[in-house]
Amino acid sequence: MNANAQAKLCRAFLYASSPDASRRKRSERHRGPVVTISREAGARGNSIAKALVPEIETSEVIPKYRPWTVFNQDLLDYCIREHNLPERTAEYFPEDKPEEIRNLIGEILGMHAGVYTNVHKVSESLRRLAEAGNAIIVGRGANLVTANVKHALHVRLVGDEKSRVRYFAELRNLTIQEAADEIAKRDRARKRYIKANFRRDIEDPYMYDLIINTDRFSNAAAARMIRCSLEEKFR
Predict the structure, then answer these.
(1) Edge-to-edge strand ranges of the sheet holding 69-71
(2) 27-54 pLDDT, tens per residue?
(3) Of the candidates 111, 113, 128, 178, which lies 20 to 30 Å from 60 by C-alpha distance?
(4) Whole-angstrom Cα distance, residue 44 to residue 166?
(5) What is the spatial distance between Cα 122 and Cα 71, in angstroms, rounded to a whole number?
(6) How many domains does the chain have?
(7) Roughly what angle, to the nearest 10 degrees, separates helices 3-16 and 75-82?
(8) 67 CB-near residues (< 8 Å, 6+ apart)
């Protein structure tokens, strides 16, 4: 699926998930199913999420209220537009900035909504997606935001650093050193984001239902494991 088609599908999903009573009766709302994916940088999070869609669509156990949709790093952009926040918010809402710096930047930019308010808005959209169901959400602490969703499966993808660096170097056409630096930067960013906004350690295994070492499994195999685990939620 190309980027434009994915964008249209995401917008349609968000529209269908709206709480507007004129478009959707409250009695028709559902709680899940939803899959959240937390990942170490280079652990193939987006690739596995993409492979999961056709895999999970074949399940006769998991309810399907609408087409399964992947929400990844572009999610913040959709949330910003959905809540009419300044578009420049995305640029100044990086995962690798400590909370003090993010607050300072927000004040300098004169945003109407503070940084923590923006985090709340993103979390609100995540909860709406989870409530609508049939969503695969990558990153942004989605496992913590949707912790109270009964039919949610929380997955963590990990891998040996050398393997992740090699994969990232090939994916982005970087040198090994460039890839190693970027991997380390992203891992720090995600750890800080979870710590600053949720006061949790992203590496805490008790936050996840399933942890997969992607060094040992292909994208297809990892997707099958996730599908089987989610099916158990409904059995």
Answers:
(1) 69-71, 135-138, 34-39, 152-158, 210-213
(2) 345 566 899 999 999 999 999 999 999 9
(3) 128
(4) 12
(5) 12
(6) 1
(7) 50
(8) 9, 13, 134
Banded pLDDT at 226 (limits 50, 70, 90):
very high
In sequence order, which residues have a C-beta less than 8 Å from that of residue 196 and are 6 or more positions away? Answer: 98, 99, 102
In a domain, 217, yes or no: yes
Distance in angstroms (rounded) separating the CA atoms of residues 144 and 35? 12
* Nearest one of 113, 205, 224, 102 to 154, comparing CA atoms: 205
Quote the tokens at residue 117. Answer: 């308010």
Backbone phi, psi, residue 156, to 5°: -125, 125
Structural domain of 53: 30-234
Residue 87: inside a domain: yes
Residue range 203-207: average pLDDT? Answer: 94
**Residue owning tokens 């109407």:** 112
Q: Is the peptide bond before 33 cis (omega within 30 degrees of 0)?
A: yes
Whether 1 maps to a domain, the answer reads: no
Task: Say what the pTM is.
Answer: 0.74
CATH number of the domain within which 62 lies? 3.40.50.300
Please give the structure tokens belonging to residue 208.
């996840």
CB 215, CB 44: distance < 8 Å:
no
Query: What are phi and psi for residue 5, nearest 5 degrees?
Result: -65, -40
Q: Which two tokens stand for residue 2?
A: 């190309």
